[in-house]
Amino acid sequence: MNQTFTGPSLLDVLEAVPYGRYFWRAVRLPLALTCAVLAQVSFIARRDDASGGVVWLVAAVGIFILSLRIDRPEIPQDDSLAAVVDKTGVRWRFVGLAILLSLLTYATSSDNTFTGIGVWLWASSVAAWLAAFWDGPINLQSSITRFSNWLRSPAFTIRFSRSLLLFLAMMVVAVFCRYYRLDAVPPEMTSDHVEKLLDVNDVLEGQPSIFFPRNTGREPLQFYLSAFIARTLGTGLSYLTLKIGSSLVAVLTIPFIYLLGRELGDETLGLIAGTLASVALWPQTISRVGLRFPFSPVFVAPTLYFLLRGLRRGTRNDFLLAGFFLGAGLYGYTSFRIVPVFVGVVAAMFGAVKIARRQNAEAESAFAGRLAMMAIVAFAVFVPLFHYSVEVPEMFWYRILGRVSDAETQLPGPPAAIFLSNEWNSLRMFNWTSDVVWVNTVPNRPVLDTLAGGMFILGAAYVLFRLVTRPNVTDAVLLIGVPFLLLPSTLSLAFPNENPSVVRSASAIPLVFLIAAFPLRLFLEQMAKALGSRVGRAIGIGVIVVGLWLSGQEMFYQYFEIYPAQYIGGAQNASELGKVVRDFAGSFGTYDSVWVRAYPYWVDTRAVGIYSGKFGWDHVILDNAEFANTVSAPGAKLFILFHQDVLAVKTLRQLYPSGILAYHVSKFPGKDYLTFLVPPNEDFDESQLAPPQQ
């Protein structure tokens, strides 16, 4: 006779031991988080073998899911069915005005030029659309009066709440990380930065383009911001100007990550997400490099915040603000163009839920109306750039078509196979695979650090657990949002070696760090339950603060030690040559009597001119035969050569036998250079001196 014996489970044994229940309750979530961190440590340390990290990761996810099933943390109620009655209907008199102003904006945006009247019409059209759809009273005169009275008030009171102080502390961390040693790191411009400064110079010289076609085409926002900084701060056309602007944009992203976390969780979740993003290496590198990369997440974050807030709460004004940021983001960075598609998918998901739950026709009509208003506002903001896309579609779409099609080169394989491979590599970049472009990141390192990498996996597991336990559309949006916003990288079908790209994937930054914040927020909640609200919360806060501090330390080491060291290995040494040119021109020579002999893969001579303090200087000799053209130049002459350019030295020796050759060791590996100084050929006749007076 067969008998089945069922013994006690491990959980039963633990709970039977005195205090075992409390011990297990207190340690299971910290144990899961620890295993996740160890998994990421293994992934980073052992780049040739992921097996150890996978074992730790499986253990982490298993313990984490077990903890969730036992503790059953509270899952926020899905608010996607919120039906709010609008206070105000559509102001149709403003609609007519807005249509007229938008048409005039389109008409005055021809020839790829912002005009004074065109910009005024553009701003007025957007304001008119907002006024037409705004829910609630519009009384600008009253608002202006209150603000004026506040300014004239002899005294005012500032109240600092705990929430405000914590928010300010988070922002201080963000500002410090983005601006600390900004003049020194990154250390050197690239040719791409030169192209950017040429566009900024066009703005300063009175060429207000809507789209900048130089270097395969770029959106305009960075160039207008940089022109403003160059003039107001006096930094001029310099690399520092670009870095100040891009870092400012990165700082402005953090408050909206905080707000997004607060909307989808609470204030604590927002603070953790914002601080994680502040101290992380990924946003740090792409923000301070001085290119357009942070102009995508800075618009993604508010767009998603207002969109999800509007969808969950049913508030019309949030839809309008989402539309504004959606349209404005199209002026920032090309990868943002995936966001309107994502917004459409999110809206369709919420709409499908509303239809499935059989809301009344009036509610469905109001929902569709709000979506239409959002789209109209977004398009009103987009109108000038839309005009350019109609006039010059080949340039507007050039960058995208060159990656997703065979417009530039033949695809290296079947498109579907390339895409799936790209998607797999892109999804793993947070923990395993990496970008190898030395300008934008530390090569061969996952984009997330030790803490954020481990927490991102657990955060994704947590969102999936919530979705399975209590299906809701918000969690579904979070899960599909990351791979969707990675599409600008994964759709690089023509050049799959460019994937994963930390810069084209930057639109996902707000969602990635929000998801990574979930386990830490859950840890704080569980510690308070297991150890008592006061003691548990204090321990939880302490652990999280230490973890964030260690993440910051890791970022500082990678960014301020490893990153500059590898950066100068691939960078030009234009700054060194620029100093030589400036010193020579400021002493016994001139800018017209110094030349740089071009050499393959050495230096962009336009950057040399920028570093010399004379924007537009580009005295480059492309062929040794051109040296003969310098003989007639009066005064002292200086030639700067690559240290291996023996033929150029030979040519100069023949032309200028009295020239002085010097060897200079560069701080940039492999970039040593020569200077060939030709003394002035004038010899003053001393017989022309006046005799001394007796």
**Spans with pLDDT under 50 lasting ≥5 residues?**
none
- Percentage of residues assigned to helices: 55-70%
Strand order of the largest sheet: 2-1-3-5-4
Overall geometry: globular
Share in β-strands: under 5%
Question: What average pLDDT do the residues reach?
Answer: 93
Q: How many strand units?
A: 5
Helices, by number, come to 27
> Which secondary-structure class do the elements indicate?
mainly alpha
Q: Biggest sheet, in brief?
A: 5 strands, mixed
The tally of domains stands at: 3
Walk me through this protein's architecture:
This protein is mainly alpha-helical and 694 residues long. The chain has three domains: 10-71, no CATH class; 173-568, no CATH class; 574-678. Helix content is 61%, strand content 3%. The protein has 27 helices and five strands. A five-stranded mixed sheet has the order 2-1-3-5-4, sandwiched between helices. Helix 15 (339-356) runs antiparallel to helix 16 (361-391), helix 20 packs across helix 21 and helix 23 (509-531) packs antiparallel against helix 24 (533-570). The N and C termini lie far apart (141 Å).
